Amino acid sequence: MTFSVSAPGRICLFGEHQDYFGLPVVASAINLRTTIRSSSRVDRLVQLNLKDTNERLVWDLDALPAPKPREYLLIALHLAKREGWLPGKGWDAEVSSGIPMRAGASSSSALLVAWCALIAQRKGAYWNQDWAAHAAWRAEVEWFDEPGGKMDQTVCAFGGTQFIEFEPQFKTMALPMPRGSWVLFDTNQPKDTLGVLSRAKHRRLELLEEWKADCSTMVLSVPPQFPAHWNAEEQRLMLATLENKRISAEGASELAQSPMPLMKIGALLQQHHHWLSHGIEVSTPRIDSILKQAQKAGALGGKINGSGGGGTGFVLCQSEVEAEVIDAISMAGGHPIPIALGAEGVRIED
Fold first, then answer.
1. 3-state secondary structure (DSSP) of residue 182
2. Structural domains of the chain, with CATH
3. Alpha helix (H) residue ranges in 223-274
4. pLDDT at 222 over 70
5. Residue 201, phi-psi category: left (phi > 0), alpha (psi -120 to 50), beta (remainder)
6. Pairwise pLDDT comparison (214 vs 37), residue with the higher score
7. DSSP 3-state assignment of 153?
8. Helix (H) and strand (E) counts for the chain?
9. Whole-model pTM over 0.85
10. % of residues, the chain, pLDDT over 90
11. DSSP bridge partners of 301
């Protein structure tokens, strides 16, 4: 049996760095995909060739080694063995991807979602998009109790543009496909995920606990009364949290409008980036510069994408200025990649 499975990458339109507060996010699958091509073997070996990183992994299904943290593909095999969706025979597989790697566009989650679907398909077990998202989340987050929400796995599995709520219960709502021209750019700077999370996540969670406040119920109708002993940095971190919540709610509302107001959406993206960059400091000088030059060339707005400290960003523009925006991104040191939003989720391919 020979077949392929693919899953899309994603961008986070609104709600960056707020899913771990239980606040909603809006994210969209993009037409850059990770594909796993597979063929059956007669023995119990699984051989995986990751072309883009020149890695080759081999596992014996009868003697799977104990997984270490972040060995998500191996963890998925253990999940399958424990739960009865591990195939009886092995397979050869080759991975190729058009998603920028380790750059915030969910290349790892796309690979894991596709991998879980491939395992189940080879077993002949029932699976659907919801199953694939949950299986990938359990391998990527639950197995070793790692920090992480369900945004990436959900969007890579379901595709489309999704409004995702985490509390009081997890649920998704499909939004219309965003209009306009979208350009992803890779800075070719590796993300500083651990450094960013120390400041953007852990410190803000500490401040919220100290303030005894609940972000999900706050409304920024009047200036908040922060604790008197908080310094300027602590107040800025919390103000950025509240502003990003407001901007994200407005952005989700505007994306649901018909016709979709591109100018307003672009302005909200730019506001979101301002607070991500100057409020919780997850951007970099290169990303800020690329966005500035793209706007000078006609982009309506844009933002950093993913955890930050490097990686990717994206801009929204009208189609008639897309070429000029792409040139401006290149001149500013970014690698531009025109993308389409609302791509199909995980799927089987011949």
1. strand
2. 2-177+344-349 (3.30.230.10), 181-339 (3.30.70.890)
3. 232-255, 262-274
4. no
5. alpha
6. 37
7. helix
8. 10, 12
9. yes
10. 81
11. 316
